[in-house]
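Example record

The entry below shows one chain as it appears in the dataset: sequence first, then structure tokens.
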Amino acid sequence: MHYGRKLNPENHTGTPPWGPGRPGWHIECSVMSSRYLGRQFDIHGGGRDLIFPHHENEIAQSEAYFGVKPWVKYWIHVGYLTIRGEKMSKSLGNIIPVHEVLSKYEPEVLRLYLLSTHYRSQLDFTWEGLEHTKSVMKRMENLVKLVKAYLEELEPPSRIPDNVGKTIEELERLRTGFFNALDDDFNTTKAMPYLHKFISLANKSLMGKPEYPIVVKVYEILQDFNRVLGVLDKYLQPPLTPSENLVRELVKIIVEVRQIHRRRRDYEVADWIRSELSKLGIKLIDKKDKTIWIIEG
């Protein structure tokens, strides 16, 4: 039965003997939910415009039928996605298809952009907002690459240096703030500033010759953040293929050849190698006694 239609048992017109009733899509959603999630489940989502009558009807009929209360433990009613202050809708013709966004930005950028606003709040879509989020994603990606490069180069110390405690404590404070915000009604708006501060502090802590415990702590927290955000999977998780390993070994050899030229004060050749690697998207970071390299992209 469609919303607003009044059926007659004989000719499918007019009002049925039991009254106008409610639309059949309430029943459909209860049936689909129970079919795949059971008689009672934890989370049910939907737009805030569905609170009444749709979700209230779902609750009433499902709790009555299954004899459980509550039928759903947590409801997540999301705010509208708007453009120039108007709700996106087919009738207004102001919809931007997802495929159009993904033709210009990586899926991770869109995901992080949508997470920047509290799920119950209205989000006004702008290309400028996506561009800003893209720059944040780039900072996160480069941080992961830098940390992984350090983890390959540095050796664990025999004892933890005394000067790392304060930095590790501050990094932990930012991680705690991030997750405390998420525990408050999944408040991503409040959590994101902790992420930005973490990125800045991590980059500052990795300048010069970073201490191994700090590098490990930064990598550990990045993994924790990503378990929620899910935007760094391809940088944190996939193992390298044999061909990727071969490329890494070749780059290491080239970087070492450059180091030899630097020690000989043959800076013209050393600078040429740096320039050519940069054209391939490989960034070199010279330290006092070694060179760290990361792949930009």
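Notes for this example: The chain is about 55% helix and 10% strand. Confidence is low (pLDDT under 50) at residues 1-12.
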